[in-house]
Amino acid sequence: MRCGSKVPLYGAKSFLCRCGGLYDVRHDFSEIARGGRVYWHDVFDKRCRPVRGHAETTSGVWRFTELVMPSIERYNIVTLGEGVMPFWRAGENLRNWVGGNLDLWIMPEGLTPTASFKDFGGTVMVSVAKQSGVEAIGCASTGDTSAMAAAYAAAAGMKCVVVLPKGKVTDAQLVQPLAYGAKVISIPGSFDDCMRVVRELVDAGKMFPANSLNPARIEGHQATVFLAAQFFDWCLPDWFVVPIGNGSNSSSVGKGMRTLSELGLVGRRSRILGTQSEAANPLAMSWGTVQKDGCAQASESEWMKAYKPLEELGDTTATAARIGNPVSAEKVMREVVSADGAVLTVSEIGLNTAVLVAGRDGHFVCPQTGMALAGLRKAVPLGLIRERERVVVVSTAAGIKFPGVVTEYGDGTVLETGSCRTEEIAEAIGV
Amino acid sequence: MRCGSKVPLYGAKSFLCRCGGLYDVRHDFSEIARGGRVYWHDVFDKRCRPVRGHAETTSGVWRFTELVMPSIERYNIVTLGEGVMPFWRAGENLRNWVGGNLDLWIMPEGLTPTASFKDFGGTVMVSVAKQSGVEAIGCASTGDTSAMAAAYAAAAGMKCVVVLPKGKVTDAQLVQPLAYGAKVISIPGSFDDCMRVVRELVDAGKMFPANSLNPARIEGHQATVFLAAQFFDWCLPDWFVVPIGNGSNSSSVGKGMRTLSELGLVGRRSRILGTQSEAANPLAMSWGTVQKDGCAQASESEWMKAYKPLEELGDTTATAARIGNPVSAEKVMREVVSADGAVLTVSEIGLNTAVLVAGRDGHFVCPQTGMALAGLRKAVPLGLIRERERVVVVSTAAGIKFPGVVTEYGDGTVLETGSCRTEEIAEAIGV
Q1: What ipTM does this complex have?
Q2: Domain boundary among A185, A206, A227
Q3: Band (A216; pLDDT cuts 50, 70, 90)
Q4: Where are the beta strands (DSSP E) in B18-89?
Q5: N or C, where is chain A less crowded by C-beta within 10 Å?
């Protein structure tokens, strides 16, 4: 992204440019552009009907093969049926809590094989790995990334290695990688040591990285935008609201919109609202110092100058986004500025309340989604998001993966009665 | 089902017939039958493309509105987008473990809003409740039923009551109902007391029951068969394999096949393999005493005579199917016999191994699904299921809801190294 030098995607051994910048995947869309708007809308719409053995119809990501990875050979596609999921219209409780009388939608990306949005990137990353002849995939993660890497490696018949610091990981965090048969190794060091080990094993050509540095992941995450565009009859919503951890969501939302727009498949693009928690808000903090009148009128370079990674992080239930130096920070800045967006900080109480309010409508989302919802609620009185605008919130994981929100912040006390008499119980519960 | 007496579905206050028998929902399909095979296949296929605000296109259950509940008014439909999910072709590890060179498929019904198959029944049950003017729904459950009831009640703007025995329930079991805002009440009694209280509150007209007695649930579960029929181009597979707890899966698979077949929408029906664990196998045990040559040639009445509820239950990780007296036992017998099926007992090691083997293919399923997979493996050498037959396994919940399988039975040990040196780590993990 910085110096403009190029490397081939398949068979790549290095995942950070010699200049220190990130890689960004570029496709040759010239063939595809010839199809035109009507042709492609029709192709994508027809693929909603599943046909056995055709990943284009059985995966919500590969429905858009020509946009996410046109150079993939079909037999290298490794899919678990990710992206086949509903859209949720926000319920009354949430709409009232957010305010602004919005046309509000939630994309529940937790309703996927490993219960987080990472599957969207995972399917593309592992398919690229397969086409590259890779035999092992590795990461240093206790969360959704290790679950995703382990699942897709298993589906591809590859080895998956998860490197972790000894004594700092709970059994619960290992259930998914172990269920998928990953090799988990604990070393006497910190998380940074684990990351270094993974980087060195990648550099030595011994494995393919599953972390956010891998640019193939972003390509798959674009499907969020493609699915939404299709759902809204090929008109993008006014806003996408996303939580920011390492930044792959905001990066891919931006990139996906550019892809659609350059190929003439949609008209107007959406704006992007990124959200971070008080515990870890390096992008929101720096955006705050350079924005004017609550809009992203700052340039990327101004923002970059103001941006400082955070060393000390606070506590939050939104652990998946508790990141002081987002890998994709550069990409986030590019996309938010280009989409006339914003990045807001939300309070810990705000994000947890959001989860509980959405639950009252039957939508149990993760605390990272809570960040997005609380950010949205903040953006309305700021005038950033206007009355009746159409807003799509990207819900990044299933609520059941984060029970702490309910046990720590929930107001749902368990009532008790002194007897088993039905009348007494009826009175206690008010029926 | 026994005495032939009839009650109206909407506004029903009683959920067990005066004769002690179960209710079964009957629809008037005369209008629908006139459409014919080609017409309905085309209608259902077109609904795969989601259209906002049309539940027929945004829910895999309501795609089949005319089959699951033709009498519902569209504005009473309460949906969370259940049944929008992929099909999984079984991977190599599982296919090899099962044997028989089968064309083996898994329906991951855990990839639904509350992460269990109960959502299929829940959406129909709560929609019927809404059309009946119900204000509160209740159950005595710590598992998937309470999660489902709480979620759909929230979506419908109804109250949900969960009655539980004091001191016998863990925090983890309450996360979902509390997240959805259910009123949880703990009483100083046993689970049977809780059930009695719920029954009395239902009889008093104070709430609608969310448990398996509610016949509207079965109607929604039929969508499993409808989705599978559609996925296989309107030809049913040779077998459906299901775990049996209270029996709603096997009942609804049988009923769904009859519905399709009576309307002329499919040709040949599937056979049904029901499975139970050693810990709780009243149906498998009694089936074993009346079957001949491993096939369900027994009559319903013979089976009924041999059937005895179990009082003492063993331990199992498949807690959701640990039931000694299945509510739908009668319906299970009817459907298994009519589908020339079988019910087998599987060992505790078998069902847990099945989960771990499926995990190696990237499919993390629950231990109840493990029961179905282990039963399938047993049915192959018995000659019940033949080489190359097409088999659909109904996977009833997400694996992450049942971490015990991995922590208690998993072979995935965590490797340890004495240093953080990359070479040593590479050697330890064999890359």
Answers
A1: 0.95
A2: A206
A3: very high
A4: 88-89
A5: N
